[in-house]
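Researcher: Last one for today. Full complex below.
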Amino acid sequence: MERIIQIAALLILPLLSAARTWYVGPGEPCASIRQAVGRAAPGDTVLVRKGIYLEKGLVIDRRLCLKGIGQPILDGEKKYEIISIKADGVTVEGFLLQHSGVSDWNDIAGVRIYGAKHVIIRNNVLDDTFFGIYSQHADSCIIAGNTLRSRAGVEVQSGNGIHCWKCDGMQIVDNVISHHRDGIYFEFVTNSLIRGNQSMDNIRYGLHFMFSHHDIYKGNLFRHNEAGVSVMFSHGVSMLDNTFSENGGGGWYGILMKEITDSRVDHNVFNHNTSGIYMEGTTRVVVTGNAFTGNGWALKIQASCADNTITRNNFRGNTFDVATNGTLVLNNFDNNYWDKYEGYDLNRDGIGDVPYHPVSMYAMIAEKNPAVMMLFHSFMVSLMDRTEKVIPSITPATLKDDKPSMKPLRL
Amino acid sequence: MNKIIKYVILDILRNRIVLAYTVFLLAISLSVFNLEDTAGKGMLSLLNIVLIVLPLVSIIFSTIYVYNSTEFIELLLSQPLQRKRLVLSIFIGLTVSLLLAFLVGAGLPILFYSGSQAGLVLMATGMGLTIIFVALALLGSMITRDKAKGIGLAILLWFYFSLIYDGIVLFILFQFSDYPLEKISIVLGSLNPIDLGRIVVLLKMDISAMMGYTGAVFREFFGGTGGSLYACLIMLMWIFVPLWLAVRKFNRKDW
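Model: Here's the assembly. Have a good evening.
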């Protein structure tokens, strides 16, 4: 008998612990998601059927999987934060979130994670939200496959797409973000991965990144953002296989790097930006395998940069290859391909025999006084550039590629 | 009037200089487009030629032609002809033949290799510059009777517009670099047809080059329809003001 009870108990045990599934929708026991969340126990699943839900600020305070069937709409009525996540292990998937509130003093978001771990926000569409997905003090969360679009017109009234503040181990993967203030915003975020995202047409930066160490961003597309991408005050950042194109508004950088140390910029593509890379105060950054094509300035490297290595990149069709603001050069520029190189290769080893000076005199002058761009390509300027090439006087003589490649490198 | 124009054109075409000029332009354009790897770079090289060679040839050739046909002009002046018509006929004859040379020598290759908007703007600029420098030549040759002086003046004018003016602009921009110079630089750009032409073509072509702050200001100004109209208007002014002065001088001149 005792044995039978034991077996029966074993059989019943999984039933007792089994997570329940709650359906929400017209004709279901729960008409609102709030009701279902209130009834559900941690570990349950809440399935939401198609429809429009006005939840007036949905708070998820227990470990739930919240899933939309056929993309139900959660509307914030332009007043509320649509979903607030305050528990670990929450999953939010398959919703259309629209019309969050807008505030001058409070960062109202489509989805906001408050200090939770292991949250997954996947395959949602956010339309007309102030901030899109906002994480603070979050740990090991995944934000993947979401489409975010803001409808704000001006910078002061717009929020960031994916905003992370004081997080660790975040994965931001395959999202599409447009028309926000900053597409992706990282501040004090460590050990995180940003991969395969598309950040386009944002009012300020495609990616804005501060005090965020040991992060990787890989295979992202940053296109047509007003100010490109800005990476500041961080170390151990890896930027791999990204594309930065057509970032040419008022702010004008593919990547702006300020106070970055011990980082890598590998195999990225810079197309048609006003400035491909702008470096200020960077130390021990390795820029290699990148393609700079058709930029106004491929590389602006300020004299405050030291021990950077710029090697094995292709520079093609840029108006100016390199610009700098001083004569002090503490960086290495060897083994690149420059399409403006006019040297020869007598021993045919593929490496030019005379060094290439990538800084033209006019680039130096334009750096000091941007108004002189009006004389660009004029006869006199070409004459001055030629003279300077023969006898360098204001361009830094040590900024040169001693081993320029004769042919474009295979990247 | 048509008769005189026809005669002038025939006369110019017969002396083969214009033919040589056409062949020269054609050779340069074709080699430029074939040597450079992209049409854009070819256009850039061609732009430099258009901005330097075209004004030079137009102004020198026209000046020499006017001086050489002094006797012809004197002969015609003894006929019952309006002086204005006579000088305009010479102007139109010179313009048409030089434009023809430009269109065949550079226009056809541009259309063939790079028939983009930038190409069309480059052609328009080249045509405008040709007409402007013929008008300037006419004015110069009315000022002095001495041929050597006249040619010197022509060279000086060309030198001024393609080199000295830019030097002055550079000087001004540096002297006043503490002040906002964007508006001023638009004005400075309009005061020289070569600069204006270059800026307009570059804005259509090498966009990221001009995209710094000044570039943005220029693009805002010249980029739209209003800006194109403004540029056209300035170019027309550069044609009509020298021409009008030349006609006035010609009318009052004692031959």
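The first helix of chain B runs from residue 2 to 14. Chain B has eleven helices and no strands.
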